[in-house]
Amino acid sequence: MQRQIITVFGGSGFLGRHLVRRLARQGWTIRVAVRDVEAAGFLKPLGNVGQILPIRANILDPDSVGAALSGATAAVNLVGILYEKSKGDFERIHVRGGETIARSAQNLGLARLVHISALGADAQSKALYAATKAAGEEAVRAAFPNVTILRPSVIFGPEDQFFNTFAAMMLYQPVLPVIGAALLSNTAAHAGGPLFQPVYVGDVADAIGHALTRDSCRGETYSLGGPQVFSFAQLLAKMARVCRREPILLPVPLAAAKALAFFLERLPHPPLTRDQVELLRTDNIIPRGAPGLAELAVTPHALDTILPTYLARFRPPARQRVRTDTGTGTDSGMEVR
């Protein structure tokens, strides 16, 4: 394709690095709009010389966003947060930030805009994360009607914050919490807690790449999930098997998790917040009949084919058998790690 400019907001994060690599292969010139330009320097070798350029941008500043989009053909907004450091952060980032990007993209005449939301975005949700994701979609669509919105489920891959976090926990403690397992439906489907449909980060990057080039994607919303649905407990058990460990999976009622989160969310990087516990009251799976990866010509990767490629580092050290000569004509075996 003719070399065109695309601006990726939040391109130095987990999904961003995979997307930037894919866009570079597609032939785009990529501006990676981030807060810390130096920290995004690792992205440059993913393309040819001069093809990937980190630039400083503040998504709440229209002038900054406009400068990042000037001369671009398309844009992708990956910016999102999982918890608030200050009250109102969800609204500022998910709603105002997304709207600022969309309005600038529309005013500057960009042909394409892809906005990353989240599966479970719901204006009626009591979880601020889900409610502001829904409000962000509405604001972005009002400003840029032809936007393509993608709603991924839990994204997994080498740098994910889900499996890597729980695998690291197994190194130091024998128990893993299964939040919500005790208070959901008593049916077998929910015996292990809320349901998830994890999607591979490379598949999400491919979906964005296709959405940028297909006219049929303009103005559409897609829900992205993997080929299988798992309960929370099933995901932890699968992760443990890959890591060759046997943790105790402890059901934790939502009320107890919320009480614990009250204290944990005061940490600089909280492992759990009350808002996240609220999210676990509902399943995170694709609604029946919703357009998804298939409509974007992406064949999803199964969890089993990807997890071993990056979780093997959490396995116990392999045992080796060392043969030694005892001087009596026989060998004695000594097992070492």
Tally of alpha and pi helices = 10
What characterizes the major β-sheet?
7 strands, parallel
Mean pLDDT: 91
**How are helices and strands ordered from N to C?**
EHEEHEHEHEEHEEEHEEHEHHHEE
Query: Roughly how many Å apart are the termini?
Result: 53 Å
What percent of the residues sit in helical stretches (DSSP H or I)?
25-40%
Global morphology? globular
Provide the CATH top-level class of the largest domain.
Alpha Beta
- What proportion strand? 15-25%
Class computed from helices, strands and strand pairing: alpha/beta
CATH superfamily placement of the largest domain: NAD(P)-binding Rossmann-like Domain
Instruction: Strand order, main sheet: write it out.
Output: 3-2-1-4-5-6-11
Number of strands: 15
* Poorly predicted sequence stretches spanning 5 or more consecutive residues: 183-189, 332-337
What value does the Rg take, in angstroms? Answer: 22 Å
